Amino acid sequence: MAKIIRGLQAKSKLPAAKPIKKAAAKPGPARAAKKPATRAANTKTSKPKTSKPKPWTAAEVYEAFSRFRNANPEPRGELEHLNPYTLLVAVVLSAQATDAGVNKATRALFAVADTPEKMLALGEDTVRDYIKTIGLYRNKAKNVIALSTKLIAEFGGEVPRSRAEIESLPGAGRKTANVVLNMAYGEHTMAVDTHVFRIGNRTGLAPGKNPLEVELALVKAIPSEFMLHAHHWLILHGRYICLARKPRCDVCIIRDLCRWPEKTA
After folding, report:
1. 93 and 179 together in one domain
2. Inter-residue contact 251 to 261 (CB < 8 Å)
3. pLDDT by residue (tens digit) across 82-98?
4. Within this chain, do residues 252 and 129 fall inside the same structural domain, yes or no?
5. Cβ(77)–Cβ(85) under 8 Å?
6. In a domain, 172, yes or no
7. CA-closest candidate to residue 204, choices 97, 89, 64
8. Could you list the residue range(s) of the whole structural domain that residue 223 is in?
9. Are residues 202 and 177 in the same domain?
10. Is residue 2 one of the residues assigned to a domain?
11. How far is it, in rounded angstroms, from Cα 82 to Cα 40?
């Protein structure tokens, strides 16, 4: 009996389960090894360095201004004025405004106030009404009254003849002083506005990072015989020929001397 039981027990035992073999993973595309991170500066495409234009020679500068003189022997500034005082006021009003816009407002103003005394008699409110078509007219009206007051109190009602004294007047800066000294008193100064600044840099005649650098470079480069009218020639050239967006290189009288690599003709 015991043998029978032992036999049944042996038969009832299940065979041991065979271990399940895991399917071998199929080889996939090999991953590229990660490259060490590089600095951002190394990933940027470096811009090609532009070579500086060849400086103008003294002979080329003389030739350029000879051409300007032959084309327009007696250039005129486009700000209308009656005397040094109205010129000063007009230049102060021309900041961030066009000459045409200033002239439109000052014709009537100067007809009734062409001296500091007459301007003070009008008063700030009335001056403001005359110039309200000009940008920043409120602040400019204050400056006109303030500079007129200072001219009477400190300079006998006359526009001074020194740069420092003109720059001390409300609303007047270096460019204003240069214009007044040149146009009213015949000084050999160089007023650098947006047109002159563009020409100095674009042509390579007087490169500079700011108006003062361009001014000093032009004064150094331009022969004395041209300096009385030089800033007018450059302003008019920039206003009507060497335009900011679409320069008219086809009618430019100094295009063969100009160093600008993007000339349109």
Report:
1. yes
2. no
3. 999 999 999 999 998 99
4. no
5. no
6. yes
7. 64
8. 52-75+188-265
9. no
10. no
11. 62
169 shares a domain with 92: yes
CB atoms within 10 A of CB 65: 21
Q: Considering only the C-alpha atoms of the chain, give the largest distance between any 2 of them, rounded to a whole number of Å.
A: 147
Q: Does pTM surpass 0.90? A: no
Q: Which two tokens stand for residue 90?
A: 């007009």
Residues 100 and 169 both lie in one domain: yes
- Given the structure tokens 């400056």, which residue do they identify? 143
pLDDT digits (tens, 9 = 90+) for 220-265: 999 999 999 999 999 999 999 999 999 999 999 999 999 999 988 7
Query: Which residues are catalytically annotated?
Result: 175, 193
What is the C-alpha separation between 141 and 115, in angstroms, rounded?
Answer: 15
Asked whether residue 36 is assigned to any structural domain, the reply reads no
Q: What angle do CA 120, 124, 128 make, to 5 degrees?
A: 125
State the CB neighbour count (10 A cutoff) for residue 100. Answer: 10
Q: Position 146: which residue type?
A: A
